[in-house]
C-alpha cells in the first residue's frame, strides 16, 4: 500500500532515464531546471488559488457570497485579476532608488520560493532533503524581510518607511518564537531533517505524543508565524487604516502582485511547516495499535493528507485575520518579548526534561 | 509648544517628521487632512486641515426659500439627514408659532431614532475597520440595510430623505411603516449582542481602546464636544433629555453617560445608545396618533423679522440652527453650529503623545462626518 503512493519510484525513474543519456553533471542540471519549472508553475497556481480561497473564506465569515461571476463559483476570478495586474502600467516613482525599488519584490518572492524547496509534499515528493531542513527553512524565510525593508526604504515615501520599519521590528522579534517552538519538536524527534521528523510521527503526531508542551509550542508557532508573515491581526506593515498599504504603497502592477503573491505563498509555507512538524506532514492519522483503523487511513494518499492539514491551518490563519482587530506596534512587541518568548523558553526546558526522562510516547 | 515643534521640524533641527494623513486616506472617512508630526511612531501634534468639501451651504441658503433649505441640510451630516432637516423645520415652526400635529411629532421622533440607529451601526462598522477588524463592516451594514429599506419604502430615498418640511412631513408614511419597524426591533434586539461578541469583549480591541485618547469633562466642555463623544467624558449634554423637542418629552429613556472619557467610553456610550434607541422606538411605534401629516401652512413661508434659534441632538451631537430673518421668504443669514466641527478639533488635545495607530482609533471614536465639518 505504502509503495503505491511513493513518489520516489517516479522520481527515481526520471533520474534513471536521464542518467542513461547524459553525464552526471548534466543530469543534475536538467533536474534542477525541471524542479525549478515545476515549482514556479506550482507557485503561481497556488498563489492564485490561495487568493481565491481567502476571498471565499472571508466572504463566509462576513455573511457574503464572495466571487461568483467569473467561471464556475468564481474560480476564474483570480486569473482575471492576474491578467489585469499584468497589463497594468508600472508607475515609476520620482526620486526613488530605482535599482533597489525594482529589486525588492524579487527578493521577497525568491525567499518564499526557496523556502518552498524544503517542504515535503509526500513521500519522495521533496525537492531537497537536508539534514538541516528546519534550520534552512527558517533562515531562508527570514530573508523576505530584507525585501520588505528595501521596498520601504527605496520608495522614498514616509508611509512605506514606517511600514517597513514596523515589519523589521516585528519579524526580528517573532523569529525567536518561531525558532524556539520548532526547536521543541527538534528536541522530541532528535533531528532537523524534515523527512526524519515525519518518520518519527508514524505512530502518532507530535501534537498528541508531546503532551501539553507540544500543544503550547504549536499555539506559539501559529501566533508567531502569523506575525512573521505579516498577516492580520499582525499586519502592521500594511495596516490599511493607518498606512494605506504600508511598504508596498508605491508599487503598482505586477510588482505589487509579487508582494501579494509572496504573502500568500508564505502563508502556505508556514502552514506546511506546521503541518509537517506538529501534525505529521504527509503521515496518515495513526492511533496506537488500532490496526484496522490505521490500515484504512493508509488508503488516503499522503499528498492528500499533507494538503488537508496545510489547508486546515491556512483556514485558521485566515480566520484570525478576518475576526481580530489589529494590534498596535508596542503591544505587538510586548506580546512577543513579555509573553511568548518566556513561555517558549520555559517550554523548551520542560520538553528537554520530558525527553530526558523518556516520558513522551 | 506646537509652534516650537513646527519650527524645529521645518529648520530640520529635530528628528521629528511630518506626514499628511489625508485628504485621501482610508481612515479619515472623507476628504479631511491631518498634518501629523511624528517622532518615530509617536504623535507629537496634529493639525486638522478642513475645507476640502466646503460647498458654502450657509451662503447658498441665503438665496433659497425655507422649504428649499431642507434639501441642503441633508447634505451636511448625511448620516443624520433627518435630524438636520428637523432642526431647520423646528426653527421655522417656532418662528411662525405653528403647532404641528401630534402625529408629525411622533413620526419625527421615530425617524430620529431610526436614523440614529443607522448612523451608529455605520459608525460601529467603520470603527472596527479603523482598528483592523474588517468583518465588523459587513455586520453593521447588514443591519443598517433594514432601516434603509424602511426609509426607502416611506420616502423613496435611502440616505438623503428630505422628508421633513416646515409644518410637518412631505406626505404620510407608508402603511407598512409600523409593521416594518416592529420587525426591525425584534430582529435587531437579537443582532445587537452579536456586535458585542465580535468586538466589545475582544482582548485586542480592549487593549486598543481602553485608556486611549482620554478626554476630561473640562476638555469636552471647553471644546464643545457634544453627542456620544462628550457623554463619554461624563458631560450630560443630551438635548433629547435637557431640551426636549418633538415627542421626546413623552418617552422614557436614560441618558447614557460614561466617565472614563477614553475611546472605550465613547464606544460604550454609542453601544448603549443603540439599546436606548430601540426602547424609544418600542414606546412610540404603537402609539402614533391618527391625524394630519402636516399643519396648514401658507404657500410661501415668510418668517417675521428677527432672530431664531433651535438646537437638536443629532447622532453626533448638538446641531444648532440660527436664522436671521428680515421678513422675506429667504433668510437674511443662516448659520449652522455643526457637532463634528467642534468634535474634530479636540483631537490634537486628546490624541497627542499616543501612537499613530491610536490617532486612527481616536478619530474613529469621535465618529466624524467630513461634509458636516466643512458644510
The main pleated sheet of chain B reads as: 3 strands, antiparallel
Strands across the major sheet of chain B, in which order? 1-2-3
Based on helices, strands and strand pairing, what is the structural class of chain A?
mainly alpha
User: Residue share in helices of chain B?
Assistant: 40-55%
Percentage of residues in helical conformation of chain A: 55-70%
Assembly status? heterodimer
What is the number of helical segments of chain B per DSSP (H or I, 4+ residues)? Answer: 16
Order of helices and strands of chain B: HEEEHHHHHEEHHHHHHEEEHHHH
- Measure the end-to-end span of chain A: 26 Å
Mean pLDDT figure of chain B = 86
Q: Overall mean pLDDT score of chain A?
A: 83
Could you give the order of the helices and strands of chain A?
HHHHHHHHHHHHHHH
Largest sheet of chain A: none
CATH topology assignment of chain B: Cytochrome-c3 Hydrogenase, chain B
Shape of chain B: globular
| Broad structural category of chain B | alpha+beta
Q: How many strands of chain A? A: 0
- CATH class annotation of chain B: Mainly Alpha
Count of the separate structural domains of chain A: 1
